[in-house]
Amino acid sequence: MAKILVIDDEPDILALIKNILHKDNHLVTTVENPEKILTSEFSNFDMILLDIMMPGMDGFTFCKENRGIVDCPIIFLTAKTMEADIMYGLGLGADDYITKPFGMGELRARVNAYLRRENREKHSSLCISGVKFNLSGKEILVDDKKIPFTKSEYNICEFLARNQGQVFSKDKIYEGVYGYGGESDSSAITEHVKNIRAKLAVFNMLPIETVWGIGYKWK
């Protein structure tokens, strides 16, 4: 059971999602206007499902303004299928996206896959290629400085680091990290790796290598 916040300006969509997620005994809070949410409430939730196209504050703006204080996965619910829109949202710190219209099974599987990954038991620490993983806190440190990775960025790093030297396709990385594969999500992995590299490059660290025509590996 998890506490999930769903933000969408369509009451029918909110009711549908609430009914679907109740089947897995999740506690679902629905909100039509994101501007009415207090920042102090974010710590109460294990996941946020966020619509993009809303009047007033849209999903992109909400994610941009709050990602720094939201310590849980953010998944966009979107009718936008243009790759540029999706990449922009992921670049703001969202973990994934689900395109509308979505099926009941897809929504439940995607949500539960993220929650399983969040709750997976961890050991305390791991140090590979000069990068230190605080496994219990899901943090990455270089030279004792914490790098501000999103949940998905951290999870990708941990998956590749634990399998150091092995090459994985984008689809295999997605499946290994979240337990839910699919070709439509391969572009999300590309953007996450781009963000990871940019953040590690500040410390002159480039542990993720592209193997052209195949995928990525942790050196």
From TrEMBL:
Q: What domain of life?
A: Bacteria
An example GO CC term for this entry is: cytosol
Against SUPFAM superfamilies, the record matches this protein to: CheY-like (SSF52172)
Q: Which PROSITE patterns match?
A: OMPR_PHOB, RESPONSE_REGULATORY
Annotated GO biological process: regulation of DNA-templated transcription
Q: Which InterPro entries match?
A: CheY-like_superfamily, OmpR/PhoB-type_DNA-bd, Sig_transdc_resp-reg_receiver, WalR-like, WH-like_DNA-bd_sf
- Cleaved signal peptide residues: none
The record's section on CDD domains has: REC_OmpR (cd17574), trans_reg_C (cd00383)
One of the record's GO molecular function terms:
phosphorelay response regulator activity
Identify residues that carry 4-aspartylphosphate: D51
Q: Which residues form the Response regulatory domain?
A: 3-115
Q: Which Pfam families would you find in this protein's record?
A: Response_reg, Trans_reg_C
Q: Where is the OmpR/PhoB-type domain?
A: 123-219
Report which residue ranges the record marks as coiled coil. none
* DNA-binding feature ranges: 123-219
Query: Keywords for this entry?
Result: DNA-binding, Phosphoprotein, Transcription, Transcription regulation
Role of this protein: May play the central regulatory role in sporulation. It may be an element of the effector pathway responsible for the activation of sporulation genes in response to nutritional stress. Spo0A may act in concert with spo0H (a sigma factor) to control the expression of some genes that are critical to the sporulation process.
Report the PANTHER family cross-referenced here.
Answer: REGULATOR OF RPOS, RESPONSE REGULATOR SAER
Name of this protein: Stage 0 sporulation protein A homolog
Give the classification, highest ranks: Bacteria, Bacillati, Bacillota, Clostridia, Eubacteriales
